[in-house]
Amino acid sequence: MATTVSAPAPSAPAPGRRRRPSLARREARWAWLFLAPWIVGFLVFQAGPMIASAWLSLTEYDVINPPEYTGLDNYRELMADPQVARALGNTVYYTALHVPLVMVISLGLALLLKRVGRLQGFFRTVFYLPVMTPAVAVGILFLLLLNTQDGLINRGLALVGIDGPSWTTDPHWVMPGIVLMSLWSLGSTVIIYLAALQNVPRDLYEAASIDGAGGWARFRHVTLPMISGALFFTLIVNTIASLQMFTEVYTMYFGNRETQNRFNSDAATFYVIHLFQEAFQFLHMGYASAMAWLLFLIIMVITLVQVKLSNRFVYYEGEDK
């Protein structure tokens, strides 16, 4: 008589013994653990204040009394406030002057640095050091340099027979003086362009030379397309930074009451400076919050337009056009 042998039943895990988590789960836990400080910081110092400011923009709030809901009144007042329009106009004017100048001058300096050779590291450091200068110190320094009577810039112009303008009092020269000051910190853009130039393959230049391309043709058809990604990045970064210009100009023109009375502060009123005054000088926190969200929307729209237009001139290696 044949006997059948049944397969042994799988043994159940011993009581109290847990299955070890898989490698993917352990890696996910460690990832969340290392990300936790950033997540907490983002929620507490960025997302939280943004949500709070969005709510405050719909209220009338002076810090002392509780917020009073007013709906969209702050935004309606923004649209009709001539001071907001003037500050925004000054900011856009500065951005339109600053961004192209920084990009063109930085590219020219990067092209020169590429040809320096062994001294490239030294000059690269020299160009970048001004970026490390505190913004308040830069404002004070250029307030002295742009002084009409004793400023070093006007003294240098006098040596070549040019009567220097009133950089800080003439409304027509206030903004050019601020743009001149802003060129002090273009070192970071120079370094970015230099890195991009050094990554352009030499084979492309050699092929262009064989085809009879001159210096300008090589720059236009080889250099610019190959560094267009860096150009696009600095365009966005410098535009956003220009629209948020604050510290240096505030130090120069709004640092104390004596400075405000002596210099033409109206021509130097930037949007963020006006926002700061509304919030911390006049305690119009709700109105200032609405101003902050308007600036956020302006920056977002400009950035989206730049990204959309970038498809026409930005080349990415390995991308088929």
TrEMBL record:
GO BP term (any one): transmembrane transport
UniProt domain ABC transmembrane type-1: residue ranges: 88-306
Compartments in which it is found: Cell membrane
Membrane topology: Multi-pass membrane protein
UniProt-annotated stretches for the region Disordered: 1-20
Record's keyword terms, sorted: Cell membrane, Membrane, Transmembrane, Transmembrane helix, Transport
Membrane-spanning segments: 30-56, 92-113, 125-146, 173-196, 226-246, 285-305
Recorded GO CC terms: plasma membrane
Signal peptide: none
Family note: Belongs to the binding-protein-dependent transport system permease family.
Name of the protein: Sugar ABC transporter permease
Organism field: Micromonospora costi
